[in-house]
Amino acid sequence: MTDHTVKSYDRDLESLGRRISEMGGVAEKMLAEAMDALSNLDVELAKRVVASDARLDTLQREIEESAVMTIARRQPLAIDLRECIAAIRISGDIERIGDLAKNIAKRTLKIASEARLPRAIVGLKSMHEIAATQLKDALDAYALRDEERARTVWMNDADLDALEDSVFRDLLTFMMEDPRNISFCTHLLFCSKNLERIGDHTTNIAETVVYLVTGESMPLERPKARPGVLGAGGDASHE
User: Fold this and answer.
1) Does the CA dihedral 152-153-159-162 come out positive or negative?
2) Predicted local distance difference test score (pLDDT) of residue 233
């Protein structure tokens, strides 16, 4: 970050970065707790995840207002302008990640009374591991202004898409085996889609980091699933 003669300018930009980091920490915790709640059908934990989303909404509004005020007061150029734009973009993506984690918690509340098919959760746990790692790497790339790490996150998004396709087929099999599984597995399908969407928003963060560091935009087309990845070749959707 550039040092400015007006030190309050530096503090404005540093404040944006700190609040992005706080948002990232809240979103990571929400995602981890939402998946714990789903795996253990823990109603109380699921309710806490739903309640914690309000903090993300507040932080996003604060970051947007602060970034707009900084642009209006300082009229930043080059890297400083990109800092403000990146803060607005990334806060929006983190807020959506929180919404999607909240959706998983809400699905948990709907199926908590149905203790069936724990093996159906296994694929979702694998998706969560990839999504959580990707999110951590993207947030680290932002904190360190690490272009290469951001590009790696962008490349690895295809793995999560491929795994979602595999989870879809597994859940479909469970539903065909026993119609009593249909309601339970349908909720899990929505959870799978939520995790895939979290991967999309994480990739958006990575793209913004590359833009922030280099001033260049990533290609519109994201890479397809790599050969050998479970479920590769499916029709998983991209943002």
Assistant:
1) negative
2) 36
